[in-house]
Amino acid sequence: MAIDIKYFNSFILRKTITASSGATAQYLPVWPGLPSDPDDLPEYPVTTPSPRVKYTTNLLDFNTRNWIIEEARIRGGYNNTSVGYGVRAYLNEENKEQSHLSNSLIYSGIYNSRTSINNTNVFSVGEQITKSVDPLYGSIQKIHALDSNLAIFQENKISNALIDKDIIYTTEGTGSLAASQSPIGSITPYVGDYGISTNPESFAYFGYRRYFSDKRRNSIMRLSRDGLTEISQYGMADFFKDELAEISETLKPVNYKFTRAFYSTSPSPWISVNTTADVNNIEIGMQVTMPQNSGNDIIGVVEGFVYDPTYSKIYLNVDPGLPSAVVDATILTKFVKDKVVGGYDVHSNNYLISLETNATQSQPEKYSTLAFEDVSNGWVSFFDYKPTFSFSLYNKFYTTTGSEVYEHYSNPVRNNFYGVSYDSSIEFIFNSNPSIIKNFKTINYEGNNGWEVNSFESDPEGPDAGTSYIDQAKTVRSYDEGLYNEGGVPYRAGFNRKENKYFANLINNSVARPNEVFFGDATTGIKGYLATVKVSTDATTDPGGAKELFAVSTEFVVSSR
To answer: Is the pTM of this model over 0.90?
Structure first.
């Protein structure tokens, strides 16, 4: 089978763009789909007056415009230099049948820049150039080379392959290394039935440690010199069991419905929009369907679009099959997949993972981003941002959101991600002497000013007649936010400070229980075997500044009843 390549070894330099009829012609040198000067977007008169539109490769009569082509072997006039051909792609195979081996690796010829040998596009059928793993464990999702070893990540198994060497086994069962003609040597599976499922985006590595998720086994894994370790078991097994169960492995349709549709008499199909949010929902590759006759007909996919803000129209480059009349609705559908985004933060030496469930018509968007630290073998923090991709470079940690790159730890404003500020919060349990019922009277902390208590609740009691009772305290305001004046005298309704330690009394805020005489703010403290507490930073004390919390304590007495 021969593949004909159009304009082989050519450069598409510019496209001829002509202004509207009667105006002076414009010849704008551009690369395909991009203006020559991004700050000088060309005007295209879709109607009168001419609105200023974003230039893409799908102007109304894009296909009728002329490309200006210049051949690659150019005589520039100075020294008569020319452009080389470079690597040539070719394929000559009489048997046109194809086979998809999702559990196999294939390698080509060698590449040597010193001797100008480049056989990276040569796949000789006369040689054994494939290496397969057990298909029982699913397709290969990821491969990663480290020194002279290649880690192979299947959906349900992780294996190790030798690179440029092989193992020869003797009759006694012992092995010795030997040179191999095959770049990929013996394949040995790691102990444990774990894989990377269908989430290769969760993979990250640093040094000799590799991290990834196994959605099908509700696990977050680490591959190191001691083999596979299920790091999600370090205090977070239930969390990942619940969160990973919601990650879908299949594509989910998301529909965007527009009130107007296509005019076949117009120069190009268009959709009317009401808000800029509708514009942001349109992406290249979306499927276009329209109600026609008794059902919905797919008429193509979005290959490009131009937004006309003056008339609230989006012109689509759709092929072709347009209806002969106006219809009342057009549906643009994109297909999304839930993701488990992984990355390594070299600044804090943490493995960062973000479990992201995409929004659909019946399901809101949901994400959880958290970090694992090898030094403490624990999950150290949650974060309030959703990365598209994350990576490290020269002791700096970056994430992307959409098409923008964000550098972490460079912003002097704490807890500000992608331009949005968040509060820090910590949730913990007081559970001293767990078999003794206690009256919790106070809460104290050591650290910076600016912390407040959002909730202080006991363990539930009951249920009695279908009702459970929880003792809870009122919110304890921070040192600054709890300040008020009465009769010219300052008082603190929240935390007070003495010798750089903050303390506050707990005021009960519970509902009345059966046969209870004193309840609510008529009593002090809460009663229970244990207490769950959530503290967070306030919104007014040094916004964006550092706020440390060293220790939190409580004073309690043994309950008399």
So the answer is: no
